[in-house]
Structures are given as structure tokens and as C-alpha cells.
Amino acid sequence: MGYRSYVVYLELSHTGCWTEGTGSKDVFVKNLQQDFSYSGDTYKAISVFVGDDLRTFLGPFKLHRNILGVKIHSLSKNIALVEFTSARSGTVADLVKKHGRVTISLEIVDGVERWRFLLPRARKESIGLLRDNIEIMGNLLKFYVTEPEPTYFTDPYPLLSHYEDKALIQAYLSGYLDYPRRTRAKNVAKALGISPATFLYHIRRAEKKLVASYLRRRSILVS
Asked: Looking at 19-28, 43-52, 90-99, which range is the least confident one?
């Protein structure tokens, strides 16, 4: 069989990696860029770190054995833009480099790495070997392979209609989305100048679009 392009989505609790530390801290990490152009067995990454435990997390992160250099740009108390150089051996990033170097998305939360990356030229039978290599790294919670789709490379959040957008914003600002709710649907509808039934129609459509988008990003929904 010939070569084809594949998109791999996986969730991994990576044993011994610094990412495990997010399991016990209120910290979320979103990768923005990975650079494999450096010589040797290293790579450079730029990521956003967000959370209430940011300061206590960054200390051990900088001292982790795989982290070779760190430059922190503080944006606010709970947000930091972090540039760091890491050893590549034994990481998912190393496999990404070997199979094509194209990371679509990487998020780290609750001690779990959530990767989506492109294999631009691979044989289907090589997917099993890739999975075997990843399973060695820790607890592989999810592994899903599909062919590339446009949604993987565009904005992951859906476009809401004008009315859905207004309903969602007003619902959030008024406390309608809180638990317990701080206001009733008829009050939000009055602020928008529409009927309660119309408000509920738009807010439910907005919620469904957002939830469906999230589930597709997690590969829980295929389409």
C-alpha cells in the first residue's frame, strides 16, 4: 500500500514528564509553537500557561530534568507566555518530529497531554508501531486516527449567528449560566428585547454548537 496523510489524536498521562504536574495543580497549558531546527536531541516550544497555581507550578517545571532552559514572560498574575527548551528523547514531540513535524494542537490539563498532529506521509501499518511507542511512555487514555479534515486546521470554535452570540453574551453577563442561576430566562429575554421562547431557542442552539465543537476537538464526535 502507498503513503497517505493521517491525523492522530491522543490523550496520554506521560509518566515522569513535567506535564504530570498539572494533575495536582490548577494549571492549563496550550502549545503555540514547536521548533525542531535546533541541533541535538532537543526542541524549543512556546506555550501559554494559565491557572491559579501558576507560580507554584513554574518552580518545579524549571527544575525538571528534561527542561534545559526557560524564559518566562509574565502577562498577568495567572497567565504566562513561556519559551522553553526540552530534551526530545522519550517525548511525543520526538515522534512528531520523526513522522512529519506538524503539530496541529497540544493542550495539557489534569496531568494529561492532548495531542493532535499530522502524519503527512505514512503507511497505515505504521500506525500500530506509533501507538506502541506512545504506550511505552505512560497511560494512553485515547488514540484515534483519521484522514485530514478542514476543521482540524481552522478555528476550532464554531461561528455563532448574530442572535446566538447576543443571547450567549447576555446569558453569561446576567448569571443565567451560573449554578445556581442568578436570573431567569424571562429577565434575560427582556434585556434583549425578545420573547423568552426566542431567547431559549438561540441560547440552546449556541450551547449545542459549542459543545459539539468541543467534543469534535476531543475526537468524541467524528462528524
From this structure: 90-99
81 — phi, psi (to 5°)? -95, 120
pTM above 0.85, yes or no: no
79-87, strands of its sheet edge to edge? 67-76, 79-87, 42-50, 28-35, 102-109, 112-122, 4-14, 138-146
pLDDT digits (tens, 9 = 90+) for 146-188: 888 776 666 566 778 899 999 999 999 999 999 999 999 999 9
Q: Tell me how far CA of residue 128 lies from CA of 39, 92, 122, in angstroms.
A: 29, 15, 11
Q: Are 147 and 5 in contact (CB under 8 A)?
A: yes
Length of the chain: 223
| One-letter amino acid for residue 199 of the chain | F
